[in-house]
Design goal:
Blueprint: H1 2-43, H2 50-63, H3 65-89, H4 113-132, H5 134-148, H6 162-174, H7 180-194, H8 197-211, H9 245-249, H10 253-259, H11 273-292, H12 311-332, H13 344-359, H14 369-386, H15 393-400, H16 403-412, H17 415-418, H18 423-438, H19 449-461, H20 468-521, H21 528-535, H22 537-548, H23 554-569, H24 576-600, H25 604-622, H26 632-646, H27 657-667, E1 673-677, E2 682-689, E3 694-698, E4 704-709, H28 710-719, E5 722-724, H29 732-758
Antiparallel strand pairs: 1-2, 1-5, 2-3, 3-4
Length: 759
């Protein structure tokens, strides 16, 4: 055993050294090529500043050449470290090393558009490289599986797979501030020049393992499992274009019964959207088949048992149910509120009863497993829609009446589940999104949006022939209405945001001025007239200067200088020379004070009284007399007044731990997050400042409803008066399908654990 471990370590070390040395040479050449080619792109006629972007990228690569190379090699080296760690731990649900992003899938929703575009480009490069090197990667997977005594799979990835190189180029480019368009060009060059070198690298790696006598006679073929299970394979299965993804991923029912129930790995969220949805549906179907294997005999037809329902009969039963639903829903859909949702469980039972009547059978025969999967999946979809907290209850109830039309559609067009662009999916998503924005749980709505959703649902229920063309027409009409609303909303929200930004900027400036003045008057005894001047008219003037100019302007420095000079005048020692210098400076101070009163439009009588009071203070000082300082009560009131005028700072000292936690979540919140009050009314955070914790709320018509502080929000959420509606950037059907997969996978895991416990 120790000899084998020594061989394993030596083999992996040899492959690591080969990868790093080969990559060092190839990547150096690649960087030189990029440096030369970017000047060609910079000279091409382009729109905007793209020419400059390519020149900037070229200078960055030239300046950071060694650092980029070092990070690229370090990333590859770390891939081998992860491989070794996972091997020692027996595998941990690791991040897919084939993913160019290398990010936690849960954070995909937080990614910028540029990040998504970059990851999609690298994901495409990775996939093409995997296809081009299928045979060599398959052999490497088998041989390194032998070295690690584990199968190379999603848990233990090949450290020299194409995804590792895509991850490395992304990490290395991140150190240089390269614009997206230039970065995408660099990735194209990477695919053209560097990626083709991988074929030779994989051949050399296989040759070195053969020299160590690791599977020296391995042939490229699919090996059958020893137990004769023709539906399953051992080792790393090569990609075969002749076999569809669904065929490779979904076992037949007999295999499910034989192999039992087990959880299924989720598809990588770094995949392109279409491929991700397709793989997600395949995973759901696989889980459904496993769970259906344990279903009662009368529900699912077993292998060899005749299925008595044709597709025509299923569609006919769905049509009759749709007509029945239309009659039941006629009164319900005519009322603006108090809409009762469709009973999804009863709808599925009614379908079986309708089939029994169509076939004139004494009892409902068993359905085929495909039909059961379709019925269950549509049912689960609408059950999750009814539980989606982003959508108001009345809108969810309306959408629930689309269960039977969608079920009928799913019997005829399976594309509804597999393709994101199917009009039925897009229409469901559009109505749910519009409902969440412009309909409230209290029954109120804006722009008659509830009526538009109701009208669309009625048209679908009343359509005997519901096909893609009809759905596309309804989608176009609904989206046209929504777009007009959105244009109006955007204009209103833009005005509200501009006003809120201006107000927040003024608050920040006033607080900055207050801070500067309080720093200078702290621990000093100051007469009340001078304190009033500094904390009110002079603070307003300084705020004006800071807004108009900047804090490094001469005007701002003069304003701060006047505060310091006025305080200096209170502490003069009384020497003749010092007083002479003070009188000369006081002329400048008086002119600046007069300018202050003129600029801010201060009341003339009040200004005259303040100037006289300040002059008397310094006349007393000239006679070496100390003017009377403001009492503690007056000083406190003036300070509190100045703080109120500047806007209260976010004081978290008196907040509970729960409220402080809520505050931190609010700082990370995205613009556009919806909140719901106890009475069902909804408002949206159109903008906020995470530093000052000032939040702008708009109502569902886009009009400003007010500003709230972070403390007010945290207290309202903590008391249950307000709740943040769970935000997701994914459309309704997509997030429902992910919830269905998670639920089914949880059931499979529970059953598998229970079976192991019994065993």
């Amino acid at each position: 055993m120790s000899n084998w471990h020594g061989l394993s370590d030596r083999g992996v070390a040899m492959i690591r050294e080969l990868v790093l040395e080969t990559s060092r040479t190839a990547f150096k050449t690649f960087l030189h090529t990029v440096h030369d080619r970017l000047i060609d792109y910079a000279q091409k006629p382009t729109e905007g500043d793209q020419g400059f972007e390519f020149l900037h990228a070229r200078s960055q690569i030239s300046a950071r050449h060694n650092e980029i190379l070092r990070i690229f090699l370090r990333s590859l080296d770390e891939a081998f470290d992860r491989f070794a760690e996972q091997e020692q731990k027996g595998g941990i649900g690791a991040v897919d090393a084939g993913s160019p992003a290398g990010k936690n899938a849960a954070n995909i929703s937080l990614m910028e558009d540029a990040d998504v575009e970059e990851d999609l480009a690298l994901s495409s490069i990775r996939k093409r490289a995997e296809v081009d090197n299928t045979e060599w990667l398959w052999a490497l997977g088998r041989r390194m599986s032998m070295l690690s005594s584990r199968q190379i799979d999603e848990e233990l990835q090949l450290p020299l797979a194409p995804g590792s190189f895509c991850q490395a180029i992304k990490q290395s480019m991140a150190v240089a501030m390269i614009p997206l368009q230039a970065k995408l060009v660099i990735y194209k060059l990477f695919e053209r020049q560097f990626i083709p070198e991988l074929s030779e690298l994989y051949q050399q790696a296989n040759a070195k393992l053969v020299e160590l006598d690791v599977l020296p006679h391995l042939d490229y073929e699919v090996e059958k499992a020893k137990l004769g299970d023709t539906g399953r394979f051992t080792g790393a299965e090569p990609r075969k274009r002749t076999q569809s993804a669904a065929e490779a991923r979904i076992p037949v029912l007999q295999d499910v019964v034989t192999t039992g129930i087990h959880p299924v790995a989720a598809p990588s969220k770094d995949l392109p959207a279409g491929e991700y949805q397709s793989q997600l549906l395949d995973s759901i179907s696989q889980l459904q088949q496993q769970l259906l294997a344990a279903a009662p005999q009368h529900r699912v037809a077993r292998p060899g048992q005749p299925v008595q329902y044709t597709e025509r009969q299923l569609v006919e039963a769905a049509v009759q149910l749709q007509q029945f639903d239309q009659v039941i829903a006629a009164d319900i859909l005519a009322v603006a509120s108090q809409i009762k949702p469709l009973d999804i469980v009863r709808a599925r039972d009614n379908l079986l009863h309708q089939l029994q009547q169509i076939t004139h059978a004494e009892e409902a025969p068993a359905l085929g497993d495909k039909d059961v999967r379709t019925i269950e999946l549509v049912g689960m979809l609408f059950e999750y829609i009814l539980n989606d907290e982003q959508i108001p209850d009345c809108v969810k109830a309306l959408l629930s009446y689309l269960h039977t039309p969608i079920l009928k559609l799913a019997f005829v067009e399976s594309d509804f589940f597999r393709h994101q662009e199917h009009p039925a999916r897009l229409l469901l998503n559009a109505m749910a999104d519009a409902g969440s924005q412009w309909v409230s749980n209290d029954g109120s709505c804006q722009f008659d949006m509830l009526e538009q959703i109701r009208k669309t649902v009625r048209e679908i229920l009343g359509s005997e022939e519901l096909d893609t063309r009809k759905l596309a027409a309804l989608l176009m009409a609904f989206n046209g209405y929504v777009q007009k609303v959105e244009m109006r909303i955007r204009l209103l929200e833009k005005r509200a945001m501009e006003r809120a930004r201006g107000e927040d900027r003024l608050i920040e400036v006033k607080q900055r001025v207050n801070l500067e003045i309080h720093k200078r008057i702290a621990d000093r005894e100051i007469p009340s007239a001078m304190l009033l001047f500094l904390l009110q008219p002079w603070s307003d003037y300084m705020a004006h200067l800071l807004l108009r100019y900047s804090d490094d302007s001469e005007q701002w420095r003069q304003a701060l200088g006047l505060v310091e000079d006025m305080l200096w005048g209170l502490e003069l020692s009384g020497s003749a020379g010092e007083w002479l210098r003070w009188r000369q400076n006081y002329l400048w101070m008086e002119s600046l004070i007069d300018k202050c009163f003129d600029v801010i439009g201060y009341d003339t009588d009040k200004a005259l009284k303040l100037k006289r009071s300040i002059s008397r203070i310094y006349q007393l000082r000239e006679r070496n007399l100390k003017p009377e300082a403001a009492t503690e009560d007056i000083r406190k009131r003036l300070v509190q007044m100045s703080e109120r005028r500047a806007g209260q700072r976010a004081d978290m000292s008196h907040l509970s731990n729960q409220e402080k936690t809520i505050i931190e979540k609010l700082r990370l919140m995205e613009f556009g997050t919806w909140f719901e009050y106890k009475n069902g009314r909804r408002e949206k955070v159109a903008w906020f400042n995470p530093n000052s914790l000032q939040f702008l709320f708009v109502d569902q018509s886009g009009k400003r409803s007010g500003m709230k502080t972070g403390n007010e929000l945290a207290r309202a959420i903590s008391n249950g008066d307000l709740r943040m509606i769970g935000a997701s950037d994914k459309p309704l059907v997509e997030r429902s399908m992910e919830s269905i997969f998670t639920d089914l996978n949880g059931r499979a895991h529970a059953r598998a654990s229970g079976a192991q416990h019994v065993g």
